[in-house]
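User: For my dataset I need records formatted as: sequence, then structure tokens, nothing else. Please produce one.
Assistant:
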Amino acid sequence: MKTKAAILWEQGQPWSVEEIELDAPKENEVLIKLIATGLCHSDDHARTGDMQIATPVIGGHEGAGIIEEVGPGVAHLAPGDHVVLSFIPACGRCRWCAIGRQNLCDYGQFLMQGFMISDGSYRAHARGQDLGTMSLLGTFAEHCVVHETSVVKIDDDIPLDKAALVGCGVTTGWGSAVHIAKVQPGETVVVVGVGGLGVNAIQGAKLAGARTIVAVDPVPAKREWAEQFGATHSVHSMSRAQALLTELTRGVMADAAILTVGVAQGSHIAELNALISKGGRAVVTSVSPWTTVDVELPLQEFTLFQKELKGNVFGGANPRADIPKLLDLYRAGLLKLDELVTTTYKLEDVNQGYQDMLDGKNIRGVIIHDHQEGPE
């Protein structure tokens, strides 16, 4: 079939929206009509080269839609199912899936390669070339063919333009507080960087029972957003946060600090570490270039103060359990998704959407795919 997609032909170039040819699903694959996709910062990291990805590639990894066709061997999904696409697949069989750590599934090794994990080939083509897909998904398209291990069925009453957000940003941010930082009731938490990940780290910390949540961002509008999502205080810099935490905690400092800035630098880590208490947890959620290898830290603080520095992939989530859980929280009014969407765009406006993100105008921009029959 013919459909439309936003393609990155070379790193450093803008997204090119054009017609593509999409093959039918093969064994263990499904064809999905995409309704909405979030403009996650990771796709721009792929464009700039902060994340290395094979090109040409269809962008997008935070999407939701409706299954139109299933390939041979697909047993638990059917045409008409409403689904969220998980940016990390969960095979259910590897060591990591078997011990309940689906976010570390071995299929994750293929995320930036772009070929189908079924057989190493491609389903999308344009200009006589094969097209890879971001995170094995490629949701910057009106339709996509994906492996069933990336697909999570959801209830039909959940709006798909909101459900799309739990495919990456919401789950990663929320999980950074709940699963990785393991925030407990009454604790003090600081979140550095208030974007699509940061506001959801704030939501996670609030739901986990944090008493004090300090948001750090240089953009005044983002600090205002942070307080709407649960932050009790907001400041413009980590140095100001250090002074505020000293005052609020009588020198104890934060139980957990979560780094969710747009691009992490080595200098951020020491500043983050300075915000946490003895026994505190510092969580690095932000992406950084592979060339960022130098970090200076006072090592005795780990030996003598028992501080922890923790990494974060997909918020430590098990997508098949946590995606439905988060949507249940949304349905119950406990998780804000509607308020996350600051601007909606057409697929043709993808480059403007990312410029708005870089200019600090959006928490999350969302592309609504313009199918002739209208969004569902």
